[in-house]
Amino acid sequence: MKVLFVCTGNACRSPLADALLKMLRPDIEVDSAGTYPYYKVVDLTRRYAEQKGASEFLKTVPDGLESKNLCVYDLIVAMERRHEQAILDRAPDCADKIVVWHIKDPYQLPYKQASNEFDKIKSKVAHLAKTL
């Protein structure tokens, strides 16, 4: 089983989901990417991952969607509809592999509000970990 998480910068949402699923399910191949990758995984994400015990699984450098062979993944989780569209633009044959989670970008939010979005990711990853 191979899972890919996709967000905008691969700096907040998708690397956190990636790290949490790796922590919960080391038997699954997990990765993440951004449609417009940022230059680093942001401190908000690092702080949250550390609090949840997932910092050792958190990537250090964001990846771009263009660097991924989308066809090899069994499941692709897009954080928003626009990420789903970016995936479909590159690989229309992957339509049946995509799930959209509707998680808002916490990048510019204060930590408390960002944590609310991260908690949604944590909950969805926990559910995913049980169902895969």
Protein model, in words:
- It is a single chain.
- This protein has helices spanning 13-24, 43-51, 81-90, 111-131, and strands at residues 2-7, 29-34, 75-78, 98-100.
- Helix 1 packs parallel to helix 2 (43-51) and helix 1 packs across helix 4 (111-131).
- It is of the alpha/beta class.
- It has a four-stranded parallel sheet.
- The protein contains four helices and four strands, in the order E-H-E-H-E-H-E-H.
- It is globular and about 40 Å long.
Judged by helices, strands and strand pairing, the structural class is alpha/beta
Shape: globular
**Reading side by side through the largest sheet, how are the strands ordered?**
2-1-3-4
Individual helix count:
4
Count of DSSP strands:
4
How confident overall, as mean pLDDT? 97
- In angstroms, what separates the terminal alpha carbons? 8 Å
- Characterize the main sheet: 4 strands, parallel
- Beta-strand portion reads 5-15%
| SSE succession | EHEHEHEH
Tell me the quaternary state. Answer: single chain
The low-confidence runs, each spanning 5 or more residues with pLDDT under 50, are: none
What's the gist of this structure?
The protein has four helices and four strands, in the order E-H-E-H-E-H-E-H.
Features:
4 helices, single chain, globular, alpha/beta, 132 residues
Ordered list of secondary-structure elements with their pairings:
Elements: E1 2-7, H1 13-24, E2 29-34, H2 43-51, E3 75-78, H3 81-90, E4 98-100, H4 111-131
Parallel strand pairs: 1-2, 1-3, 3-4
Helix pairs in contact: 1-2, 1-4
